[in-house]
Amino acid sequence: MKSLRNALVLTALFSMTASAIVAYAFVRYFPSERPMATTPATFSQAPATVSTSASEVESGVKNVAAKVGPSVVSIVVSKDMPVYRTDPFGFFYEPSGTVRRKVGGGTGFFVRKDGYILTNKHVVSDPNATYTVALSNGGELEGRVLAFDPTTDLAIVRAFRKDGKPYDAAIPVEVIPRTTDLSVGSFVIAIGNALAEFQNTLTFGVVSGLGRSIEAGDQSNGTSEQLSGLVQTDTAINPGNSGGPLVNLSGKVVGINTAVTQGANGIGFAIPLSEKIVTGIVESVIKYSAIKRSFLGIRYVSLTPEVAAEAGIAKISGVLVTGDANAPAVISGSPADKAGIRKGDVISEVDGKPLSSAFGVKEALAEKFPGEKVFFKVYRKTALGSFEPTSLEVELSDR
Fold first, then answer.
1. Is residue 381 part of a domain?
2. Fewer CB within 10 Å of terminal CB in the chain, N or C?
């Protein structure tokens, strides 16, 4: 398949007037065809089946809206903007101070009763802005940014009352136990502050792909970010939906909406979440005032047929540990170095899960945190030129 270049737009709306946030991404498109049944028997039986299913799905969507809606918040972004004065004839035009104005917004959702909110990093990344947390019942709270995730587009914000005390009446969401509990075709619902104007907008669709990788850039601040292992969905996601939850029909969060493709219909992306990921992030912020992620300390490439042929590797899948003098394959003193991983090793499994182009080392370690031990199945080249398997235990660190 050929890679198509699609422009992605990060879904937070950071300009309410002229500017829009533009992002770019490289995504892989896999066309498919689904045969349609055409026999009279199929058509005659369809109405009863479809009617029952539609009724069940409609009921499920309504239940999710009632259950998850109170946990979703709108995040209003405000800044001091310059004000200018002029004379009626336009002879002079000079600054006359500043005024605080709303310049954009996004979405977030409570993950703890005591006011901890998970949202996108790009929603709350401006250190010169202030953030207001708008509740679904119309109340407003102060939002304070506590930490950014160094590896993904995630951030933790905490809500405070006007008297400065932490908000302690939040209704936290439920999150699925494992990221692998999601499959293509699953019904999902997105809830968010669409266009930074229409609070708690609900849209409905399906998971249309898993393990997607994109490069998203924010033109408003000139940054870009590599995101991998994403959930692709055709659920309508609009500017302002960034940081909102992607939810299954059981009312459990499966991901956090992050980006959409510009110039395409029904191609949006969410960062997958699990109960362990969310709990680990929040506990890290409470303990360290930072989001600490697990660190392995290797450089690698996916073992594509071309890479395998060049390295003389046959019938093994996974990733090849590789590097050069300027970028060593294994960082000295890292957990990988201490465990004995070497340049030229092929890592085929992490904790018994096979690696592939869609499920690499980063995805395998997404639910692992510093201090945890992980088992790697590694193929290493022998003196005779063959690759023999071995098992290595790695204790992850935060750097």
1. yes
2. N
3-state secondary structure 347-361: EEEECCEECCCCCCH
Q: Is residue 246 part of a domain?
A: yes
How confident is the model at residue 8, as a pLDDT? 45
Structure tokens at 373: 């031990």
Residues 362 and 222 in one domain: no
Answer yes or no: is 52 within a domain.
Answer: no
Do 322 and 263 belong together in one domain?
no
Q: What is the pLDDT of residue 235?
A: 93
Ramachandran angles phi, psi of 52, nearest 5°? -65, -45
SS3 218: strand
- Residue 220: what pLDDT? 57
Query: What is the number of structural domains in the chain?
Result: 2
CATH code for the domain in which residue 355 is found: 2.30.42.10
Residue (of 22, 19, 160, 161) closest to 103 by Cα position: 19
pTM strictly above 0.85: no
Residue 21: predicted pLDDT: 33
Question: Which residue, chain included where needed, has tokens 């104007």?
Answer: 197
The predicted pLDDT at position 343 comes to: 94
**Which residues of the chain fall short of a pLDDT of 50?**
1-50
Neighbours of 99 (CB within 10 A): 10
Contacts of residue 216, defined as CB under 8 A and 6 or more positions apart, other chains included, come to: 8, 10, 23, 24, 25, 153, 224, 225, 227, 258, 259
| Phi, psi of 77, rounded to the nearest 5 degrees | -100, 125
Q: Where do we find the tokens 């995101």?
A: 227
**Residue type (1 letter), 340:** G
pLDDT of res. 217: 60
DSSP 266: S
What is the full DSSP assignment across 69-124? GGGEEEEEEEEEEEEEEE-TT-S-EEEEEEEEEEEEEEEEEE-STTSEEEE-GGGS
Q: Angle at Cα 250 formed by Cα 247 and Cα 255, nearest 5°?
A: 25
Active site residues: 122, 153, 242
Token couple for 360: 């690499």
Handedness of CA 69, 70, 71, 75 (dihedral sign): positive
Which CATH number do you get for residue 238?
2.40.10.120
* 273 lies in the same domain as 305: no
For 147, other C-beta atoms within 10 Å of its C-beta total 21
